[in-house]
Each structure stands twice: as C-alpha cells, then as structure tokens.
Amino acid sequence: MAAPKDPRPCSIADALAVVGEKYSLLVLREVCLGNGRFDQLARNIGAPRDILATRLRRLVDAGILTKRVYSERPRRFEYRPTRAGLELEPVLMTLKEWGDRHLRDGVDLPMVVEHSCGSELVPRVTCRACGAPVRHEDLTARPQSPGWTVAGPATA
C-alpha cells in the first residue's frame, strides 16, 4: 500500500522524499567528508549493503551524488557530492549542531567541524536581506498554494 500523500504542496515533503530515507543523510555526510567508496560507506554508516546500494542509486538519480569509476578490475565506483549535494551540507551541519546541543548536552561530541578561519563552526541561519539571525518569533508564513492555512505562530 502506498504511503498517504501530503495533502498540501510542500517543499519540505519534496526534499524528504529525496533525502529523508534512513541512511540517506548519513551517506551524504560521509561523501562530504571524502569517504565516497562503497566499502567506506558501508563501514562508517553500518547500513546493510543492499539498502546502501539502493540509497546510493536514489541519490545519484536525484542529482545529489555523482559516481565515477576508480577501478576497472574489479569495476568499482566512488561517490562525490554534486552542487546540489554540497548545498545540503549546511543542513547536515545544522542537524549536527542541534544534536550536539539537545541530545548530547554539548558533552562527548563525536566530531567538531572547524571553519577555514580556524574556529569551531556553529552554524546559524540568517536572513539574506538584513543578516539578522532567524528566530521563530520573527517569521511570518505566507502560503502561496491552495490548501494551506496558517493559524498563527506556535510557541514553546
């Protein structure tokens, strides 16, 4: 039976259809770290090999990864991020930061990412126009498609 379709057009749902499957973002994490060979991916992610092969195929088909031959005998491929894949890297960094803060309490962090300036990267989402940090209370949703309603801002 097919999964129920979101009744409203949504770019978040569309993106999750491509990268929301288990292991997909972990594949992208590894490829962005330079671990693009199948054996490296299988070892570092822990995904079953058949599922990993399916995820890789879908990410290539979606234009997030490319694959290139690095060995002819036996024929083996390595995967690299495309421009679209690299544009997902800030999403990965933001998820990592959220996990570091809310799931690990900033303790026992498995990895620190440094910016080219030498400082630890702490990603922030900012407004393209004014540069101010994005805060929930500063946002206003303006639906552009039928089927959307906005009840008002949710607060914690």
Strand order of the largest sheet: 1-2
| Overall average pLDDT | 91
CATH class of the domain at 11-85: Mainly Alpha
Strand content: 5-15%
Characterize the largest beta sheet: strand count, sense, and whether it forms a barrel: 2 strands, antiparallel
Shape: globular
CATH topology of the domain at 11-85: Arc Repressor Mutant, subunit A
Order of helices and strands: HHHHEEHH
Q: What is the CA-CA span between the terminal residues?
A: 36 Å
CATH architecture of the domain at 11-85: Orthogonal Bundle
CATH homologous superfamily assignment of the domain at 11-85: Winged helix-like DNA-binding domain superfamily/Winged helix DNA-binding domain
Q: Can you count the beta strands?
A: 2
Structural class: alpha+beta
* Number of contiguous helices: 6
The percentage helix is 25-40%
- Low-pLDDT segments, ≥5 res: none
Give me the Rg, rounded.
19 Å
